[in-house]
Design goal:
InterPro entries: ADH-like_C, ADH-like_N, ADH_Zn_CS, CAD-like, ER, GroES-like_sf, NAD(P)-bd_dom_sf. Its EC number is 1.1.1.2. Belongs to the zinc-containing alcohol dehydrogenase family. By secondary structure, the chain is α/β, with parallel strands linked by helices. It contains eleven helices and 17 strands.
């Protein structure tokens, strides 16, 4: 086994009472020794995803073991197994939300390993298909994974800015491609955050006319800078009424509970509402789907084919996330600020400080 350092959630530090803490602490844990088709990756940058926050505030409190979050990162190959053919020591790579799948089911054969019939192995909190161990995530200095679930980081893409592409980027990319968005399409992006700002960039690069949906006009300048042609204030009933039936696709990246009906009303004939920011149980009025044959869908990150295509597209169009890079020792600050929406638009942790053996453990 290999020992590495990272930032972990420890249930014993976080009692499940009204005053429970969700703080992560620095600690050491074990990675597996390399299998024949494995890479060892020194993690340089790891994005802080809103789903990490959901996990820390919810699901992790139910676990009886420590867990390291993080599932969108870039880094450098430090060792390869004997069967690895696509990577060499020193290569720059990117890793996303999946690290294994069965490889045999219909979904896997279609390049949609994210929907593997046997359950994909997620980057943290998953169950390893070989030894049954719990996967530990990218808020750490090293990761070990199968070669086929690593991607070569395209030359020219900033490693910190590229890290969020591996979750947020492909999460927005898949519904855009499924809806056939291209020149002349009308796309609305609800929520200009870690997901939404990449939705704007990708939609605009595909040739669509992009409108940001926001509760206030405060982000109008940012929306335009990112490639949007307009901003619609969703608290203005007149603006909502004037935009009814206008869009081919609404990318809903809002990270909390909200009504879907106002967004469905914005769709034109055969338009699609893709809910990607908060795919939790929600009330839907089916009559809202009837007028115009509207469609309601969602998406769970992406498979290997879509992820590779997204990275190539981002390299061609020089697309990376807008990031605020923090040393990993400030991970708890990042999570607290993310909960308040205090970030433009994605926190990324620089893991280099984990090499400092004298750094504090908390």
């Amino acid at each position: 086994m290999r020992t590495t350092t990272g930032w972990e959630y420890v249930p014993s530090d976080n009692p499940t009472n009204g005053n429970s803490s969700t703080a992560l602490r620095r600690g050491t844990f074990q990675r597996r020794d390399l299998r024949e088709d494995d890479l060892a990756v020194r993690i340089d940058y790891c994005g802080v995803c809103h789903s990490d926050l959901h996990m820390v505030n919810g699901m992790l409190k139910q676990l009886g073991t420590a867990l390291v979050p993080g599932h969108e990162f870039t880094g450098t190959v430090t060792e390869v197994g004997p069967a690895v053919t696509g990577f060499a020591v020193g290569d720059q790579v990117a890793v996303g939300t999946l690290v294994d799948s069965c490889g045999q089911c219909t979904m896997c054969r279609a390049g949609q390993e994210n929907y593997c019939a046997q359950g994909p192995v997620v980057t943290y909190g998953g169950t390893d298909r070989v030894d049954g161990s719990l996967t530990q995530g990218g808020y750490s200095r090293e990761y070990v994974l199968r070669e086929k679930f690593a991607y070569r980081l395209p030359a020219g893409l900033d490693a910190a800015g590229a890290a969020p592409l591996m979750c947020a980027g492909v999460t927005m990319w898949e519904p855009l491609r499924a809806a056939g968005i291209g020149p002349g399409s009308q796309v609305a992006v609800a929520g200009l955050g870690g997901l939404g700002h990449l939705g704007v960039k990708l939609s605009a690069a595909l040739g669509a006319q992009v409108t940001v949906l926001s509760r206030t006009p405060a982000k109008a300048d940012d929306a335009a800078r990112l490639g949007a042609t307009g901003l619609l204030v969703t608290t203005d009933e007149e603006q909502l009424k004037g935009a009814r039936g206008r869009f081919d696709l609404v990318l809903d990246s809002i990270p909390g509970p909200h009504e879907l009906s106002p967004l469905l009303h914005l769709l034109g004939l055969d338009g699609t509402l893709a809910v990607v920011g908060y795919p939790r149980p929600a009330q839907v009025n089916l009559f809202d789907l009837v007028a115009g044959r509207r469609k309601l869908t969602s998406s769970g990150t992406g498979g290997r084919t879509g992820t590779a295509d997204m990275l190539a597209f981002c390299a061609e169009h020089a697309i990376t996330a807008e990031v605020q890079v923090l040393p990993s020792a400030r991970v708890n600050e990042a999570l607290q600020r993310l909960a308040k929406g205090d970030v433009r638009y994605r926190f990324v942790l620089d893991l280099a400080d984990l090499d400092d053996l004298d750094a504090p453990a908390h």
